[in-house]
Specification:
Elements: H1 3-28, H2 34-40, H3 47-58, H4 61-74, H5 80-95, H6 97-103, H7 108-116, H8 118-150, H9 158-206, H10 209-216, H11 235-251, H12 253-260, H13 265-279, H14 282-296, H15 305-310, H16 315-352, H17 359-381, H18 387-395, H19 399-410, H20 420-443, H21 445-450, H22 452-455, H23 461-478
Helix pairs in contact: 1-9, 1-16, 2-9, 3-9, 3-12, 3-13, 3-16, 4-8, 4-14, 4-16, 5-11, 5-13, 6-13, 7-8, 7-19, 8-9, 8-16, 8-17, 8-18, 8-20, 9-14, 9-16, 9-17, 10-14, 11-19, 12-16, 16-17, 19-20, 19-23, 20-23
Length: 492
């Protein structure tokens, strides 16, 4: 049997075994509320699990395949994607985690709805689901690309790899719930770093070391962290990454659900800060693969930068690296699928069906949601081209939630109930317009001449914050009824 395939099979079997074990943990912590255990690990996750859940969510397909893809043309500065993720985790740990955990809510729309009303809550569910389905689709693309590139005899096309990737993600999620996410991520994070570091050592040895790689690169700032050369990301792009990731970390359901699941406020703060620190170097390590590919494989499709380098490794190291890349994908996708499941159950099904729902029926809804989201994500994945650009654009939509939540924490007097719905709606409309802008510009020379994307340095996060702040400020001045200040509450 192919060595890489054998390692992958053993690794998947280990993860499935952990997911099965998680069902036992779930049963032990479910005496008072089975669904609280399935969706939020009984709000009993220790700091180590909080940290690895954050790391697992952050280091996914975008952080490995996507970063290497960008680094193929932009050099080491592409690693700021994960550097910004780490900064986001640290920011939440220092300034928001304690507050979020204290509220004892289960979803971001629930929190926003308590402050700004039911209409805002409903629109928030739609927005969050759209964002997380988009991000999940990117994990399927990355997982499929890894499998098809490294084992073409077993997975002859990208689609074959995506199908297997989606099946494993769904199986782990459905089996063990949030405890399964925590346990598998504990293993995934170790495997990710071991695999990446081992592969880097062998890659540099295989291609003659750093000096040989530098000599093969075209002139430019390939190893600059920030620069003006075409081969590196400029200050505006790096600042955009930081703005997106800090914004997202405060209010994306998949990220905040980690905080909601922590044992207590102190645990939530510590876990987020530690996780953020551990995340910081991952992107720059993966960017090195893209730089090596640019040096040794000119003219390559950038999306194949990392898989191409991985194919040059020995079977043993290549197998471990393959497991590491897949671990990154799994850890992110499972957290996203659990987030979607929680949103649908808590903010749609329970709101529509007023009577109490039996635990077994809630569990069935959660698992059905995972299947539906996976199917939608798979269809969307077939249209994905650039992983990082699509992901950062989607994450910018969380600006509205972050603004509404942070304002309620630090400037409650400015929060008016009327602000919630228009701020969230404006954020969604901006995302739609930004996505359609290239097609609109090609059809309208006048619109193309305005160069709207160029004005905002190609970063949606800048107009998102500008527009959301303007609408929020107008409501603060002209709105009459104050938004409700959230107070700690008991689990329902």
């Amino acid at each position: 049997m192919n060595t890489q395939l054998a390692i992958l099979i053993v690794y998947v079997a280990l993860l499935l075994g952990l997911a099965a074990w998680a069902t036992r943990l779930q049963a032990k912590t479910a005496a008072h509320n089975k669904m609280l255990s399935y969706l939020l690990a009984g709000r009993n996750m220790p700091a180590a699990f909080v940290a690895v859940m954050l790391i697992g969510l952050a280091i996914g397909g975008a952080s490995t395949v996507g970063v290497a893809q960008t680094a193929y043309t932009k050099g080491l500065s592409a690693g700021w994607y994960n550097g910004a993720w780490g900064a986001g985790g640290i920011f939440v740990g220092l300034f928001a985690a304690g507050y979020l955990r204290k509220m004892r809510v289960k979803t971001v729309p629930e929190m926003v709805g308590l402050m700004y009303g039911p209409k805002t809550r409903f629109l928030s569910v739609i927005s969050q689901l759209l964002v997380m389905i988009t991000i999940t689709s990117l994990q399927y693309v990355a997982g499929g690309a890894i499998l098809s590139a490294l084992m073409p005899d077993v997975f002859p096309s990208l689609r074959h790899g995506m199908v297997v990737t989606a099946a494993i993600f769904v199986l782990i999620t459905v089996m063990g719930g949030y405890w399964a996410s925590g346990l598998t991520n504990l293993v995934n994070v170790v495997v990710i770093y071991i695999g990446i570091i081992a592969a880097l050592f062998q890659t540099f040895g295989r291609f003659g070391g750093l000096e040989s790689i530098k000599a093969s690169l075209p002139p430019g700032g390939w190893f600059a962290l920030v620069g003006s050369a075409p081969e590196s990301l400029g200050g505006w792009a790096v600042a955009g990454y930081l703005a997106v990731m800090i914004t997202m970390a405060v209010s994306t359901q998949a990220a905040t659900q980690i905080v909601f699941s922590a044992k207590d406020e102190k645990t939530a703060r510590l876990g987020m800060v530690v996780g953020g620190v551990i995340i910081l170097p991952a992107g720059f390590l993966c960017a090195l693969f893209g730089v090596v590919a640019a040096a040794k494989f000119p003219g390559l499709n950038p999306a194949l930068a990392l898989p191409t380098i991985a194919a040059e490794l020995t079977p043993l190291v290549g197998g471990v690296f393959l497991a590491a890349l897949w671990a990154a994908d799994i850890s992110t996708a499972v957290g996203l699928l659990m987030g979607c499941s929680t949103l649908v159950l808590e903010d749609i099904v329970k709101k529509a069906y007023k009577k109490p729902i039996a635990d077994r029926n809630q569990l069935a809804v959660s698992r059905a949601t995972v299947l539906c989201v996976s199917a939608l994500s798979f269809l969307l994945a077939l249209t994905v081209s650039s992983i990082l650009s699509m992901l950062t654009t989607a994450l910018a939509v969380t600006t509205s939630f972050t603004l509404l939540i942070l304002a309620n924490i630090y400037a409650p007097r400015l929060c008016k109930r009327a602000a919630g719905f228009p701020v969230v709606l404006a954020s969604l409309i901006l995302w739609l317009v930004w996505t359609l802008l290239p097609a609109l510009e090609s059809a309208s020379p006048a619109l193309e001449a305005l160069n709207i994307r160029g004005f905002f340095k190609g970063q949606l996060i800048y107009p998102e914050w500008l527009v959301c702040l303007l609408i929020f400020a107008a409501c603060a001045v002209f709105g009459k009824n104050p938004a409700d200040k959230l107070l700690p509450q008991e689990d329902l």
